[in-house]
Each structure stands twice: as C-alpha cells, then as structure tokens.
Amino acid sequence: MAKHTMKIISGMQPTQVQTLIDTYSLQMVQTKEGLIYLEGELEDLRHATKHVVDVTLPPGPTVTEIKNAVDKYDISLKQSDDGPVFHGTLYEINEAINYLVDQMSERLDLD
Asked: 8-32: per-residue pLDDT in tens?
C-alpha cells in the first residue's frame, strides 16, 4: 500500500511526537532539505489528526490574533512552562497556526 505523509507541527513536544508514532504505527522521515514528516497508512494519519496535543505558539502573533484563532477553531489556549500553547486536535491546531501565519504575513505586508 502507498505511504502518505503529514508534517510535524513546529512547537510539538518530542514526547507528543513519539506518542503519535507509537499510537498510530507511524514512521518519522526526513527529506533532503531537512523537513521532518510522519509517514504511514492514510487511515492511520487520519486518526492521528484527531489526536489531542499541546503546541507552543510561534513567536510574533498579537494577543488579538491569538484570540481570533482560538475563537475561530476548536482549540483552547493554555499556559505552560514554555509559554502559551494551543490545546486541541492536531488538525485544528494546524489550521489555527496556518491562520496565525496568514494574519502575521498580512499585518507585515509579506504577501
């Protein structure tokens, strides 16, 4: 069967990545460019996207942008020793981070 890939979200703790690998029978692969992905069967990756994780926020978003992301997606904001984190499913957090990056790019006129 064909293998499929899913990116690892920057800000995930290594223990959470290992839990995804162990729980959903995934493999970690690295491209020539140094990007790291999870690889596995499509159905396993679909299940993994529903896994609940905490992801440290990227630097740069404003308080308003973070609040808008929390309101728009099914995630919550928590405080950790490493700073603020999004808490929710891998899929929703990925969407929220993409939203934040788009908002910051627009604010900085990087389009």
From this structure: 998 999 999 999 999 999 999 999 9
Q: How confident is the model at residue 1 (pLDDT cuts 50, 70, 90)?
A: low
Determine which helix (DSSP H) or strand (DSSP E) holds 82, and give its type and residue range.
none
Scan for tokens 């990227």, then name that residue: 58
pLDDT beyond 80 at 110: no
Counts of helices then strands in the chain (DSSP H, E): 4, 6
Quick one: tokens of 87? 């808490």
Cα separation, 39 vs 75, in Å, equals 25
Alpha-carbon span 85 to 105, nearest angstrom: 21
Q: Are 61 and 103 in contact (CB under 8 A)?
A: yes
β-strand 36-40 against 83-89: which pairing, if any? unpaired
Element (H, E) at 45: helix 42-48
Other CB atoms within 10 A of residue 50 CB: 10
